[in-house]
Amino acid sequence: MTLEEIGRQIKVCKEQMDSRYGSTVFDEWAVVSLIENRARVMAYTGPRNDDFLKNFARDLGSLRTALTSGNFGPGDFEFTRHNTGTGYEGFLVLGVGLYLICNNTSDSLDSIAKNPRWLVAQVPFGDLADRVRTSPLEVAWDTRIFNKPS
Questions:
Q1: pLDDT tens digits for 40-57?
Q2: CA 24, CA 28: separation in Å to the nearest integer?
Q3: Domains plus CATH for the chain?
């Protein structure tokens, strides 16, 4: 999948999740690269465009260990229920060193999950994960900047 294709898939996923939930589930969606231990935002939609990357390390919070463990492959995801505010609620592995970060900047996933509609709102996210699993995100790496991951 290309960055453009995953962008369309994420937009559809967001719209379907919000529709099924009855309000916004995640107001922040970002495709990030963590190649060579350097965070790069490749696509972002949300309320804090300028501050997202600046606060990235802090906002990973309890997801940091899972995200950097290397135990996840394309289509795998992890959520934390207790991050609040700008602390990220979850990630989806899009490809080697490529992640979708999801966040609700005003609510915790614990609170979101108390709404019974949360169960049906998760379905589009699972569908997106399945599509990524069969067709991971691939980007054209500029080897003058950094080496393509192996």
A1: 889 999 998 888 888 888
A2: 10
A3: 3-134 (3.30.450)
